[in-house]
Structures are given as C-alpha cells and as structure tokens.
Design goal:
Layout: H1 12-25, E1 42-45, E2 49-55, E3 73-76, E4 82-84, E5 96-98, E6 103-107, E7 118-120, E8 125-127, E9 140-142, E10 149-151, E11 174-176, E12 181-185, E13 197-199, E14 204-208, E15 222-224, E16 229-232, H2 236-247, E17 259-261, H3 271-275, E18 285-287
C-alpha cells in the first residue's frame, strides 16, 4: 500500500500512484510498499517527484505513455522488457534514457522535438533516421546493433555562423554507431572537439585523414572502424601534403589516441604511411588485419 497523505497539496499521492502503476507495468520484481521514494531504483526530488528510475530486472511492458513530468533519468536494461519507445516522448525534463539490450521497438522520430544528453538504445529493435536527433545536445549516443540508418552528418546540427563550430554537438564525448546502416564521411567527427570514443565499425562510413584534421578530436582515445569503407591513409597530393606537414612538425593528429581498429578496411598502403599522421598519438593497440597493408 501507499503510505502517503491523500491531502498533500503538492500532489505526492498522485505521483505515488503513477509510479506504482508504472513499476507494475514494467514488471518490477520487488514489493511496492511504503513511500515510493524509498523503493529500490527510485530517486525523488524533494521527497515527492520521481526523478530517476533504475531497474535491471524489470521484465514487463512499457505503458502507452510515461506520465512523470519531473523524470530526469531512466535506465531499464532487462532483455525481457518490451514496448514502444514513444512511451518516453515529450517528457521535457528527461535528460538520460538507457534501454540497452531490451526488446524495445519504435522509430527515432519520437525524439524529433526532444533534447537529451544521453541516449543509449544499443541492441534494441529501434529503427529510424539519425536526422531525427539533429536538435539534441548529446554527450553520449549509443545506437550500436540497431536497424537505424542515415548519414552521419545529419547529427552534427546547426553550424554557428560566428564561431564556425557546431552549437548542438560540441559536447559529444561518446559515439557508438557500430553495426548499423549508417553512411557518411569520417571527417564528420571533426565537428566533435571533445570526443573520447567513436565506434563506426560494420557501417558504410568512408573517408581518410588529411591536413584538415590538424588539431581536431584532440581528446579521442578509441577509434573503431572495423569493416567500414574507410581508407584512413590519404593518397596522391593529399598524402604528400600530410607528409610535408609532419616533416615540419605541424600536424598533431589524435594526440591521445590509444586504440585504433582498421581490420578489413581498404587502407591499401604501407605501414609507414599509416603511422605517419599518428606519430604523436599514444597508440597501445592498432589492428589492421586484411587491410591491404
């Protein structure tokens, strides 16, 4: 039962009833008794409004609509959980949504007008185009292992005319789109100045390094490009330009890079040319099997 005062002017009883119904829909395995703010996985604001929901073993079904206007963070990761992603659309306060490894389905278009910092939907049945996320100020995006599609460029957002940098994507630090149907250019990553990790493996992304990469992605630690169309090493005049820049010590590319995977990429170059632009990196692991090196 719910141990709250029905006369509470702040509407805490209504909030308690809503979260109780939601947790029953989600198949919460534990007892739902006493103050809802003291239930495992529930965090409240001012002892009343539900702010966070964490449940790794909720194996039920999402309701048609989650009616918790103060909800800030959601993490539901049971492989038995199902339902349509649209249940979380339109929650203005929602900042972080993690449904990794669940049976959740639906189209990314439900987030077209929303703004999240963190969206983790890896290994779900989510579909849709990346362009639906163009308005978001994302810090982390993980859609790996889903049927999403679109051009990588579409998530860059509007370019600031005054400063020449992405207003909405400058905060992106974790980008995981491996094993999806996306396309685009590797150079799109240059729009994310504080990016730490990028996984574009098993996609149709293409491209190579060139002199434009100077002082870009200086925080990048991990770059996964396995089974993409990325050539990585430039050719012809651009290769010579990179060599000229490096000879003068003017081309620091990926100074913090530690892990690089080019397995099954069409690099088709020499070890010397591959390592040339990476001379200032802190590489501890580089994989390039079947890459024509």
């Amino acid at each position: 039962g719910l141990a709250l005062d029905a006369g509470d002017p702040d509407g805490c009883l209504d909030e308690a009833q809503r979260i109780e119904q939601l947790m029953r829909d989600l198949g919460h395995p534990g007892p739902l008794e006493g103050n809802h703010c003291e239930w495992p996985g529930i965090t409240c604001w001012k002892g009343c409004r539900v702010e966070k929901i964490h449940c790794g073993n909720c194996s039920g079904h999402l309701p048609e609509k989650v009616e918790l206007e103060y909800l800030w963070e959601v993490s539901l990761t049971s492989p038995m959980l199902s339902g349509n992603i649209k249940a979380f659309s339109g929650i203005q306060q929602l900042n972080s949504l993690e449904l990794k490894g669940t049976e959740i389905y639906g189209d990314l278009e439900v987030f077209r007008e929303d703004n999240l910092d963190r969206l983790v939907l890896a290994d779900t049945k989510i579909t849709g185009d990346l362009e639906n996320l163009a308005r978001m100020w994302l810090v982390e995006l993980d859609l790996s292992g889903t049927a999403i599609s679109g051009d990588l460029q579409s998530i860059v957002g509007d370019i600031d005319r005054w400063f020449g940098v992405s207003q909405s994507k400058g905060r992106l630090r974790h980008l995981k789109l491996g094993n999806t149907n996306i396309t685009g250019q590797l150079s799109t990553l240059m729009h994310f100045p504080i990016l730490i990790e990028a996984d574009l493996s098993f996609t149709s992304v293409t491209g190579w390094l060139d002199s434009r990469w100077k002082n870009k992605c200086k925080e990048l630690r991990t770059l996964q490009l396995r089974n993409t169309w990325v050539q990585f090493v430039p050719v012809g005049e651009e290769l010579q330009r990179v060599k000229d820049h490096w000879t003068g010590g003017r081309l620091p590319i990926f100074p913090k890079l530690k892990e690089l995977d080019l397995t099954h990429c069409p690099v088709n170059s020499t070890v010397e040319n591959l390592l040339l632009p990476l001379a200032m990196s802190q590489l501890s692991s580089i994989k390039a099997a079947a890459a024509g090196i």
